[in-house]
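The data are set out underneath:

___
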Amino acid sequence: MVDDPLVTVGSYSVRSDAEIARAALDASGVDAVVRADDEGGLNPGFFAEYGVRVEVRAGDVDAARSILGVGLPEPILELPQQVTEAVVAHARFTYPEEACGLLAVDDAGDVRMVYCLTNVERSRYRFTVDPNEHYRAWRHAERNGWEIGGAFHSHPMTAAHPSSTDIAGALDPTWVHLIVGLVDPENPEVRAFRIVDGEAAELGSVTLEG
């Protein structure tokens, strides 16, 4: 599985559930691996909040999702290069604390503006957008005929995948959630999700090098 990129087809709160899913895939002839940010199992309490993921080769995604009963994802989200560059720059600037901000979208749902805002938590593990900055972003978007249709934040020490806290805090199912993973700050990963009824569906990802 070295030469083919890996794609997450399931995320679980405990490793045992992920291992059951991996076994089901293996029994059907689909190679899968279990990946978790839990320091090799030494720290399951904290890092388990980011989910235990089952990953397969990119070419096996459809078969794996069919086996696991996971619906096919929405079409890949197309992000302007300026948006990915802006969220990555802000994530690097605030590192090792979590970065955060908001996204303005037009009537077609396309991202038109990214607002890099202050995390009042000043934390490596959680974020809260400054309410005054939130209001100013909303007013700016409104003046331009847009609406706030998403948010972004970074995971300074873990992968770009929604944590249980991220999922619990996602109140609007139409919002786009961008996450910047900085496990390797020189090679950040940006992934996009919608979170509906406690489930995160990936819309797309892009890795920026350098």
